[in-house]
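Hey team,

Filing this mostly as a record. A colleague (T.K.) asked me to run one chain through the structure pipeline before their review meeting, and I want the input and output archived in the tracker in case anyone asks later how it was produced. No errors, nothing strange. Just documentation.

Input sequence:
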Amino acid sequence: MSVRSLAAVPEDGPAVRIESRVVHGYRRVFRVAGSGPPLLLIHGIGDSSATWRTVIPQLARHHLVIAPDLLGHGSSAKPRADYSVAAYANGMRDLLGVLDIDRVTLVGHSLGGGVAMQFAYQFPERTERMVLVSSGGAGKHVSPLLRAASLPGAQALLASLRLPGARLAVHTAVAVLGRLDAGIRVDAPDITRVVESLPDATSRAAFIRTLRAVVDWRGQVVTMLDRAYLVRALPTLLIWGALDTVVPLGHAYQAHAAMPGSQLEVFDGAGHFPFHTDPARFLETVERFLASTEPSQWGVDDWRDLLRAGRPAAVRTPESRGYQDELREASERSAT
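Output structure:
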């Protein structure tokens, strides 16, 4: 199913409101709908809460859904600030505090998956479950386009995309690459949408700062693999597109092997945005996971025991080839 063909996804859920709060002097915009156990949806880099618009109404039938525009993204403020994964996790905690929400189930896409994992690590007592969608932080490799965008001069290049004729050039380039790679072809509408969502210098600067906090010319510089064993008491679902060229499918298997008790769902025919390519299956998968798992009940003693036990010996499987190498690099690429 294409994001442009959503007949199988009912739209009769609760109305979605766009609200804002000022936190630490900065405006934070978010979508909110429904009532019940809270779900926090965290988007990826260069994106906004609008990316979840096709799935929020259905999820909100049984949950209170909050989908923020991360700082530096969408309609939220774009200050010269800390755009690290840890800072974003703190920002999510503070927004939830303002909204008087103590505990949530996290759903994070791409960069948002890294933020979700960091939130669960920093605030385990506030985390009930976790859904990671094509998540960052599970391997070094990432799209060459993102690596290139982290290089000096990238901001000027992004600015040039606002020049007359540049939009047509971007669409043409994506179309050509799509003929060579099925994953790019599937994600072409989202790739061009994200590029075109950087309308001014402030937005582009925030995008570059965020990207450089997690990616350099060699690939991802943040990992969750060294602490992934801590989710053994946290219900965790991994969702990945088989054709993902931004964060390759191999990362899904590495994360699954590193996370005791995690569930993995691979969407054939989907790229980096499986909830756009097949929103009906995404909703069914997430709702089944929520219904079949109990919220984690972290305690101080439980957390202390996990830390003292430490990381268990890694499981070697054909799917997780390279996992040991990623763990050896973990101390150099730690999120905090």
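Quick notes for T.K.: The chain has two domains: 17-141+221-332, 145-216. Confidence is low (pLDDT under 50) at residues 1-8, 176-180, 315-320, 329-336.
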